[in-house]
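Hi V.,

You were right to ask for the full record rather than a summary. Here it is.
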Amino acid sequence: MKLSQLVLTLATVLITPSAFAGVLQLENSAKQVSGVTVSKGGKLVVQGRTTNLITVGAGLRTRFSLFSVYVGELLVSDNKAYVCDSAKALDSVSNLGAVAMRLTFLRAIGMSDLQKAFQDGFENNNVDDSTAAIKQFMAAVSAGGDIPNGAAL
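Predicted structure:
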């Protein structure tokens, strides 16, 4: 399995109690964010089971309001159960059957910088980074090496 496939689906460990690596097959939409075509949904195949996903949001991540870093997409299995509210989104995602994220990088990122960014995100969002799932995710990030401009995870 490619690192990009593994990291993408392991990203669900950030918000769900159990996570499994899988393959995400996306269906592009006509919409773009900062020149990146975003999906309208796709299929997530995990342990031989296929789940349909719907894209519920996409946006640009910047650093210091100066540098475009990546375009992120959030895909969920039940868009009616997802609550698009900053105070309730994480709780609603934890009750969904499947969640995936795709990050399309708009600049090259060194592996150590990416690891630090994820670690900072865990700390800022009170995510327990001592769990086996988070450790597995971080090991996959480490094994992937540097991220080239235009790569999607």
